[in-house]
Design goal:
The protein has 11 helices and 10 strands. The chain is of the alpha+beta class and about 450 residues long. GO terms for molecular function: ATP binding; phosphorelay sensor kinase activity.
Amino acid sequence: MALVQTPFVQIPYVLHTKVTREQPKVMFSDLSQSPLRKNLQRLFLLRNIVIAAQCLTFALAYWVLEMQLPWAEMVAVAVMLAVLNLATWVRLRRKLPVSSVEFFAQLLVDVFALTALLYFSGGSTNPFISLYLLPLTIAAAALPWAYTWVMAAITISCYTLLLFYYVPLPHDHEEHNSEFNLHVSGMWLAFVLSTVLIAWFVVKMGISIRERDKDLASAREQALRNEQIIALGTLAAGAAHELGTPLATMAVVSGELQNEYTGDSEFQNNIRILRDQITQCKRTLTQLLADAGQARAEDGSGQAVDHFLRQVLDKWQLMRPSVKYTYHGSGVQPAPQILNTQLLSQSILNLLNNAADASLKHIEIEVNWDHQELHLEILDYGEGLTGEAVQRAGQAFFTTKAPGQGFGIGLFLANANIERFGGRVRLTNREGGACTQVILPLIRQTI
């Protein structure tokens, strides 16, 4: 059956999981990648561009313009800068934090290298003197204000010294006009190069800051969700204790009724269903209290995915005997294993109950898996998702059911638990109802 993919609700997830045979590994959004580390990576790329531009400029001045300059010294400075950049690349391969002092020291090396090159090629008369603006701009964008003022003082001092101490450029009085035009062209080229590099770096820094803010917002949202889950868990534990006595009373009364009206077959059938439901409620409460301390994904065990799904469906059919369903499952054999925990099975039960509430007569369950992931689709034949449901599905205490028929926490808890195990949930409208799509990672077999 073709699915209509719009509108859809993609419930966001922050946690990603790679599950191995030994234990699952939960990886959070990469908040350890600090802005300074990203900026040092950009400075590394920027320095590569500068070194390539220096080599091109040297070649142009030596072979085309045939300028007589201290080439040995200038090439040595460029080689030293390239060696430093190679050391920076090796340093970036190590997962170590980048401090403001280290980033400032990297910029100082660029300033001193530029000063040395300018000293051997005309000093302040060199049109590329404006490249001093590049490290100053980077410092202002990436570092605290104190470093920026120190960088400003250093660049001004270097510029001032180059006014008086430098190796002059070779000068030919007969070609004064052409040299002046060449100087103007060099100033234009330096301006263009500075503008492009500064714009590139500042834009990348803005993107980095926005990504950091997005990660922090996601972390805050996840923390708020965890607080809601803890509050719900506390209430659930209290409710489990309070419901124990009423359920025991109901079990006793239903047993007496079953023994009293043994001749009424229809009554016996109904009372048997009632006792099964009471037993299921007591078993659920007992399991809830037993699993109250199960806060880690490692506490679960592996189970073949087809057996896991069959157990979940059998349990759900016991809870909802009046709802008919068709099941289609396929995948690689032997079936890989999935992390079998009470939280995960309860989450799938919540999704099945939501579909059954929307489509009381019949639902379809389609499952397929490979060695990495399980794909589960629950197709109902209800009225589909409303506009408000599209916007708010997955939020705590939001429900489209009539008052008194739902608490608005089933989808919220299911989504939170499935994300916790590295999966994701998506709700879509389709022709004739809605579709709940679940993707879960499977345990990878290691040799």
